[in-house]
């Protein structure tokens, strides 16, 4: 069987998240986890893992194209070149990560990773496909130097697993290890919004780059996590695009060429904070405030579990799915994480996303088992749902949110 065994990363890392939570409960530190943050974090991770199905091959061919046409040297794999590749990879990560905090367009891709007010293994999942594309531009120096793409992709798989384990508050300082490698203590500093910790500890595996380039800071006081101005939103779409929208508004408002340039390539502090406040009033205003019902929490838990299971199955069986089946399944999963994010915001319009998901599920079933009777049943079901849309919407929102406000 031609299975994609990378799918097992989904249950593996989900298991580590659950294990960390179990340890936290045992140590009576369950306050390190919040339900809304955990769901929002996992949603971002699901979307990123899903996007890898469509982008990993592109990144590989991008590296291969550079290697075949522009490689400066012909580097062969041996123990020395593997060490050299690791050091170059980690150094490039440092500069990608530093640019991700100091240049607006790169911060627009990276900011999603820093939005959570929690700091635990679920936060490690907050990686976007735009962030992956940005760092691939930096890693393009590796095939340019002459490292074969096979070596690069193998090392990146290993290199990418390490930082997951630095996103925790349950591990203290690690003695001599702190002098060479990035540890949870170092990364807690990086994720904090304390003034003295801002823009520190960019390293991924090795902390030596921060010490070499003057961006190192020890963890000395309790970090406060998240953005300096909290996002206060768990919307999947708003989390991904709010800063990119701020950049575009800043660019439009800038009266000079220098101002327009700084909108994209200046520092995040160059963006007028009033832009975000205006965008929030327009796009992220809470329709109404309700305490979460048990039904809502249970439904979000169910949807998150279903999304994780579907993600695992789709990745595992990707070679057996047609392009149309794969695309339909991907859209269904993306709509699912958008829906659960909107549920956390208690949006009433999510019922229309549910209609779309039912339609996509019907299309996927038809693509797997094409028949006239199945297509008729799907059409009739959607027609009935549309005819009774208002009643269904009221019942649906009433069940999840306990009451409806006009």
Can you describe this structure in just a few lines?
The chain has 406 residues and is mostly helical.
Detail the topology: elements first, then pairings:
Elements: H1 9-26, H2 35-70, H3 79-102, H4 104-110, H5 129-139, H6 141-145, H7 149-161, H8 184-191, H9 208-213, H10 236-253, H11 257-265, H12 273-283, H13 294-316, H14 323-344, H15 350-368, H16 372-387, H17 389-401
Describe the structure.
This protein is mostly helical. The protein folds into 3 domains: 5-213, no CATH class; 236-283; 294-401, no CATH class. It is built from 17 helices and no strands. Helix 3 (79-102) packs across helix 4 (104-110) and helix 13 runs antiparallel to helix 14. The model has no long low-confidence stretch (mean pLDDT 91).
Which properties best describe this structure?
single chain, 0% strand, 406 residues, mainly alpha, globular
Termini separation (Å)? Answer: 54 Å
Q: Helix coverage percent of residues?
A: 55-70%
By DSSP (H or I, 4+ residues per run), the number of helices equals 17
Structural class: mainly alpha
- Stretches where pLDDT is under 50 for at least 5 consecutive residues are none
Q: Averaged pLDDT, please? A: 91
Provide the gyration radius in Å: 23 Å
Structural domain count: 3
Q: Hey, roughly how much beta strand do the residues contain?
A: under 5%
Give a short account of the largest sheet: none
Shape label: globular
Number of DSSP strands? 0
């Amino acid at each position: 069987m031609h299975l994609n065994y990378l799918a097992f990363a989904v249950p593996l890392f989900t298991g580590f998240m659950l294990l960390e939570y179990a340890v936290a409960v045992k140590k009576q530190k369950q306050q390190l986890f919040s339900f809304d943050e955990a769901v929002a974090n996992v949603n971002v991770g699901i979307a990123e893992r899903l996007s890898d199905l469509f982008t990993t091959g592109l990144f590989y061919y991008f590296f291969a194209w550079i290697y075949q046409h522009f490689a400066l040297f012909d580097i062969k794999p041996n123990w020395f070149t593997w060490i050299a590749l690791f050091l170059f990879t980690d150094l490039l990560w440092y500069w990608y990560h530093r640019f991700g905090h100091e240049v607006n367009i790169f911060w627009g891709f990276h900011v999603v990773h820093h939005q959570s007010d929690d700091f635990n293994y679920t936060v490690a999942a907050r990686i976007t496909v735009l962030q992956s594309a940005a760092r691939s531009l930096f890693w393009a120096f590796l095939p340019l130097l002459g490292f074969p793409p096979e070596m690069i992709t193998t090392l990146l798989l290993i290199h990418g697993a390490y930082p997951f384990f630095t996103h925790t508050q349950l591990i203290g300082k690690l003695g001599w290890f702190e002098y060479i490698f990035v540890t949870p203590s170092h990364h807690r500093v990086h994720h904090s919004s304390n003034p003295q910790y801002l823009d520190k500890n960019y390293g991924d595996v090795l902390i030596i780059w921060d010490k070499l380039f003057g961006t190192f800071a020890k963890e000395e006081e309790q970090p406060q996590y998240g953005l300096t101005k909290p996002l206060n939103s768990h919307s999947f779409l708003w989390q991904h695009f709010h800063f990119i929208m701020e950049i575009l508004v800043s660019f439009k408002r800038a009266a000079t060429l220098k101002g327009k340039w700084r909108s994209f390539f200046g520092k995040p502090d160059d963006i007028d904070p009033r832009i975000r406040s205006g965008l929030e009033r327009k796009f992220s205003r809470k329709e109404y405030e309700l305490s979460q019902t048990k039904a809502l929490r249970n439904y979000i838990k169910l949807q998150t579990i279903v999304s994780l299971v579907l993600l695992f199955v789709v990745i595992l069986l990707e070679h057996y799915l047609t392009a149309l089946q794969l695309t339909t399944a991907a859209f269904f999963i993306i709509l699912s994480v958008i829906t659960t994010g909107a549920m956390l915001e208690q949006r009433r319009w999510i019922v229309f996303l549910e209609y779309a998901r039912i339609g996509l599920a019907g299309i996927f079933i038809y693509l797997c088992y094409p028949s006239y009777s199945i297509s008729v049943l799907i059409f009739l079901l959607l027609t009935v749902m549309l005819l009774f849309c208002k009643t269904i919407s009221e019942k649906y929102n009433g069940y999840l949110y306990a009451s409806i406000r006009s």
